[in-house]
Each structure stands twice: as C-alpha cells, then as structure tokens.
Automatic annotation (TrEMBL):
EC number annotated for this UniProt entry: 6.3.4.20
Recorded name of the encoding gene: queC
InterPro entries membership: QueC, Rossmann-like_a/b/a_fold
Single Gene Ontology MF annotation: zinc ion binding
Record's protein name: 7-cyano-7-deazaguanine synthase
Binding site for ATP: L7, S8, G9, G10, L11, D12, S13, S14, T15, V16, L17
GO biological process: tRNA queuosine(34) biosynthetic process
Species name: [Phormidium ambiguum] IAM M-71
Cofactor stoichiometry and binding remark: Binds 1 zinc ion per subunit.
Signal sequence bounds: none
Keyword entries, A-Z: ATP-binding, Ligase, Metal-binding, Nucleotide-binding, Queuosine biosynthesis, Zinc
Record-stated family: Belongs to the QueC family.
Length: 225
C-alpha cells in the first residue's frame, strides 16, 4: 500500500513519516521549496527521507514570495521572537503563510492519485500555540470532502484519505511518540530563521525547546542562543 507524506523536515512531519512507515505503508515523501525564509528545512527533509529509505522523495518548487503576506515569505517582515507560549496563543501570527496547507494538500492529492496511493499523511497540530487556521480538525474534514469530490478515485468510491495523526497531540506527546518510533531528532529542523544553527528564539524554536524541557530531555539540535 502506498501513502504520500508531506515532509517539511521538522519535528512533526518527521514523526508522521515514521508513523506512516510503522502503519505499513510504502512511503512517498513530498516536500516544497516555496522560497521560504527557512529553506534550510529542505536539507533536513532530504536527510530524513534518505535515512528512512522512502520509496520516492519529490521536492516541488514554486515561489510564494510573489505575493508575500508572511514573515516566512517576505524578508522585510520581522520574525516574532522571544514570545511566551501564552503570547503565541493570542492571535494568528505573522508566520502564517496564506492558504499554505491548501496548496500543499492540493499537490499531495494530485501526486497520490497519480501513483495510486490510498492515504496522504500530514503533520498538522491543532494544539500548537501557533493557532494556524489550516491546522484544525474542521479544516481537515473540509479538505477530505475536496479529496472525495475532486478526484476520479473519490467519485468511484475509493477516496484518498487524509491522515493527521498528530492533530490532537501536545508537542510533548508528539516527542514521546517520535521517541517510540525512533525519530532521529538531530536530523530534523524547526527554526524559522534558517541559519546554520537554530535561533532558539522564534516561535517554532520556543515551542520545540519548551516541549523537550518539559520532558526533561535534551534537544540535540545546535542552537545559537
């Protein structure tokens, strides 16, 4: 059985890849070079894909800097830094990329139907403090209907299923799951800054570090601060 896994190279998506493999699927990884500020994550995605031994790893390239609208696609917008977890949960942050998961899932749907995959795995999480609207259960449910209505497979009664195994897990629970699956955290990348070392102060770094600390574990990534 085949499954397409959206793989950014981060903690969540790497855990999802390992989960899909544990579920018994032949894994076809799909990553995106959308000229994001943190393109460093693509190196991690390639490393993880090679390490796991996926059947195929596709990297799709396009440029979301064309319309910006996010600190991840517009270098003129400052990244939020040194924010508390409470602050992160108050509003949708400027690191939200407009409709990103809809774009990603559309590519994944086309890829999955082309290769005859039964499932698309995605590492969205509704309990993260980021509050992104395209990481919520109702969004995934709506996209599942798009998968059913918008494909030949769906109309023939064999709709490709979206699998979001992390959607209701805390970050600490995701790390615990990853540990049980053997995810090599040192090969993953979460930082939005995309420098040689993780910055340690952007929202993504803060969430990751807080979870490792809560579990009394050491994050093996090198941090600048």
């Amino acid at each position: 059985m085949k499954a397409v896994i959206l793989l950014s190279g981060g903690l969540d998506s790497s855990t999802v890849l390992y989960q899909a493999r544990a579920d018994g699927y032949d894994c076809y990884a799909l990553s995106f070079d959308y000229q994001q500020r943190h393109r460093r994550e693509l190196e991690a995605a390639r490393d993880i894909a090679r390490f796991v031994g996926v059947r195929e790893h596709q990297v799709v390239s396009f440029d979301l800097r064309l319309w910006g609208g996010s600190a991840l696609t517009d270098n003129q917008i400052d990244l939020p830094s040194d924010r508390s977890l409470t602050e992160m949960g108050q509003t949708i942050p400027i690191t939200y990329v407009p409709a990103r998961n809809t774009i990603f899932l559309s590519f994944a749907l086309g890829y999955a139907e082309a290769i005859g995959a039964a499932k698309v795995y995605i590492g969205v999480n509704a309990l993260d403090y980021s509050g992104y609207p395209d990481c919520r259960p109702d969004y995934i449910q709506a996209m599942q209907e798009v998968f059913r209505l918008g494909t030949k497979q769906g109309l023939e009664g064999e709709s490709i299923e979206i699998v979001a195994p992390l959607i209701n897990l805390k970050k600490t629970e995701i790390i615990q799951l990853g540990n049980s699956l053997g995810v090599p955290w040192e090969k993953t990348w979460s930082c939005y800054a995309g420098e040689e070392k993780a910055c340690g102060v952007c929202d993504s770094c803060r969430l990751r570090l807080a979870a490792f600390q809560a579990l009394e574990l050491e994050d093996p990534l090198p941090y600048a601060s």
